[in-house]
UniProtKB/TrEMBL annotation, chains A, B:
EC number: 1.1.1.3
UniProt catalytic activity: L-homoserine + NAD(+) = L-aspartate 4-semialdehyde + NADH + H(+)
Pathway the protein contributes to: Amino-acid biosynthesis; L-methionine biosynthesis via de novo pathway; L-homoserine from L-aspartate: step 3/3; Amino-acid biosynthesis; L-threonine biosynthesis; L-threonine from L-aspartate: step 3/5
GO MF, one annotated term: homoserine dehydrogenase activity
Keyword NADP: yes
Classification lineage: Bacteria, Pseudomonadati, Pseudomonadota, Gammaproteobacteria, Oceanospirillales
PANTHER family: HOMOSERINE DEHYDROGENASE
SUPFAM superfamilies: ACT-like, Glyceraldehyde-3-phosphate dehydrogenase-like, C-terminal domain, NAD(P)-binding Rossmann-fold domains
Positions that bind NADP(+): C11, G12, L13, G14, T15, V16, G17, G18
Binding site for NADPH: K105
Domain ACT: 357-433
Protein name per Swiss-Prot or TrEMBL: Homoserine dehydrogenase
First-level EC class: oxidoreductase
Keyword Amino-acid biosynthesis: yes
């Protein structure tokens, strides 16, 4: 072994920081044989000690900026999370000529364009495999493994908390609030679960995936985001009866008019592999023009699964550290993203095409169903299936509809008109339906 | 774009060669933006023209060795298949200082050690993503994406023909021979299907996967290989009744005594993602010590899926072409494989531990079942489930058994003793059972 060690500074010793420290330490010999050179932890910056980590003999600091200025460090590993300090830390490390590895999806989704621009100017690597889908090497697969392809669409279960809740709602017929409380007690959900259950975390990850799939600047602000907090046990059951499973998906498609970027609950056919991804696991289906359908599955969070991705990035940095920057994989997979004139636009949600599941409550009176069907027809929406349930709730009849593909704005108008009907109680439940055929 | 083009020579213009030509041509602009430099097809060597490819303006030859000597070529892409000429071609290309990309699993599994040694001495890349599981980037995922991990086991559906046959046997209750004939008519199986249905092709791929998972020299001759030609419609049905699906798997596990390397029909629980991989699709489950369970799914064969992997390798070569060889990803993931003293051995099949499904035909007479149970007990094998079916075939009763984990040699002895019983007709059907928990 004739190459010098690569010297790493770890910022943050929480869940992921601790996992990274332990994996680098435990598997040091194998990792050195893979890199062709040792990877050593030069310094760790942390606020509170992690009882899982034995940092005996390791140089430590409380100040991440001291670490980012340490001349003995080649790679700064940002695992402190959040936006502001993390952004300043990463930009400082870049300014100091350090390569950066981060697991921070919010940082990359929101400040990625600025960070990559700064890194490009300094000729340093910013790697972020751990920012999406934990230990699943989906960034590497999209940027390199599928590099031959024009990506057509991708769809993923990219938030473990949401999938845990939907899995238990389905398996046990329970309500959202009930399972959420359990997930919080078990530590699978935060005490403020907004980021996870309202889809913000998934939208961060989807923004990153779409950018590297199509070579677009990061545009988190244009993502459509809808959470799972309004999915009911009844919808889960009705979907099941119709042959579907409800999953919280991040979906991005390339169409003739632009790129779709949307996170929402989605009915998918039971036989899809994505429908069989349970609990806190993640999976991403990717369709390429050459390869066809592919799928990547694994743990989307957790100390060592996320560390697995962080350390893989460190290995990549170790291999590319002496490489001319022009030969490296571009941050967002394609070089010259800013120079493309006819870059496709992110489509407004009103313009996307999809199918729909609708559930409404109608007064049990002749002609109501005909009126609903007429409204849909007038909006150009054709019905694939219609189920009028037995009367269970006084005189209100639940009606379940599946539509063929239509444009979101037409559905918005149809729902507005249906909700205005005197014989319809409350609001119409609308969940989008996608076929996402990965077996084709 | 300031870097020179990378110049590729394609040997073979059959299914994969034609697909590679077309993908490189169709997606040339995107590929150049990914590589940061154009990738141009400098020359194509082929015997018969491929009507799918427009080679107007491309330099051609009938002689692959002329191509391998062409000083204007940086990367020789070997897509002629077979052993002898392919081996000579690849070694010649290496000798001429060319980088090599190949889709040839047989070549790598059988001659890989020699080829990598030669390439190492010349400091050139030999890339082979397309050799395993077609378009699925599983080599990249194992060598790079999971580089932080000590791999514990992997198991895959890595032969599309076999999976096509087993899928249709299960869905339609048909016999092996019947579905095979259909697969041959549809072009999914060769007229001589031995390589596919007897597991040789899968064993080639498994040999490669295991080597890069654990950093072992390629040892195809030590793989245990059992095909699917003796799987009956009845076994498929009985497995289904017990909650299992029969898949033809390549399995490799790292144990305390060595490395398992085995291809055989396997009962796996229905709820596994692997059990839901249908038709000609492939999937590989990989368990790492840090990441936990992961899975990679997609098309295992076909012109453009395989080309997707070939072109991804060409992209990697384009990026690493000027890199010091010591920084490149080692051929079999780890450097210095030959220098390891205590390299684990491939275990003989008799020494592996697994569970079993057994099906036997007994004369319907008191005491037969007790005798079978006694033999199993005497061999230290405990029974998980035992089903004695209704008498259907004269006076012979089918008995179905599931055992707990035991050692193969004990099962061999038990089966020898059971088959020697006067009241047992014919031979005992034995199919191994694996839990392969990817949801853990």
């Amino acid at each position: 072994m004739t190459l010098n060690p690569v010297r790493v500074g770890i910022c943050g010793l929480g869940t992921v920081g601790g996992g990274t420290f332990n994996v680098l330490t435990r598997n040091a010999n194998d990792i050195a044989r893979r890199a062709g050179r040792p990877i050593v932890i030069e310094q760790v910056a942390y606020r509170s000690p992690n009882p899982e980590c034995d940092i005996t003999g390791i140089k430590t600091t409380q100040d991440v900026f001291e670490l980012a200025a340490n001349p003995d460090i080649d790679v700064v590993v940002e695992l402190i999370g959040g936006y502001d300090v993390a952004r300043e830390l990463v930009l400082t490390a870049i300014e100091n000529g350090k390569h950066v590895v981060t697991a921070n999806k919010a940082l990359i989704a929101v400040h990625g364009n600025e960070i990559f621009q700064a890194a490009h100017e300094k000729g340093v690597i910013v790697a972020f495999e751990a920012a999406v889908a934990g230990g699943i090497p989906v960034i590497k697969s999209l940027r390199e493994g599928l590099g031959a392809n024009r990506i057509e669409w991708l769809a993923g279960i990219i938030n473990g908390t949401g999938n845990y809740i939907l899995t238990h709602m389905r398996d046990e017929g329970r309500a959202f609030e009930d399972v959420l409380a359990e997930a919080q007690a078990l530590g699978y959900a935060e005490s403020d679960p907004t980021f996870d259950v309202e889809g913000i975390d998934a939208a961060h990850k989807l923004t990153i995936l779409a950018s590297i799939a199509y070579g677009l600047p990061l545009q988190f602000d244009k993502a459509y985001t809808e959470g799972i907090s309004r999915v009911t046990a009844e919808d889960v059951e009705q979907a099941d009866n119709l042959g579907y499973v409800i999953k919280h998906l991040g979906i991005s498609k390339r169409t003739e008019t632009g790129v779709e970027l949307r996170v929402h609950p989605t009915l998918i056919p039971k036989e899809r592999l994505l429908a069989n991804v349970h609990g806190v696991k993640n999976a991403i289906a990717v369709m390429g023009d050459a390869v066809g359908p592919t799928l990547y599955y694994g743990p989307g969070a957790g100390a060592e699964p996320t560390a697995s991705a962080v350390v893989a990035d460190i290995l990549d940095v170790a291999r590319d550290i002496s490489t001319d920057h022009r030969y490296r994989v571009p941050y967002l997979a394609f070089s010259g993203i800013d120079e493309v004139d006819d870059q496709p636009q992110i489509m407004p949600m009103e313009e996307i095409d999809t199918a729909y599941y609708l559930r409404l409550l109608a007064v049990d009176r002749p002609g109501v169903l005909a009126r609903v069907a007429t409204i849909l027809s007038e909006e150009g929406i054709s019905i694939e299936a219609l189920i009028q349930k037995e009367v269970t709730d006084g005189e209100l009849v639940p009606i379940i509809l599946l539509t063929h593909m239509t444009r979101e704005k037409h559905m918005n108008e149809a729902i507005r008109r249906i909700e205005a009907m005197a014989d319809i109680a409350g609001s119409v439940t609308r969940i989008r339906v996608e076929s996402l055929d990965e077996q084709e």
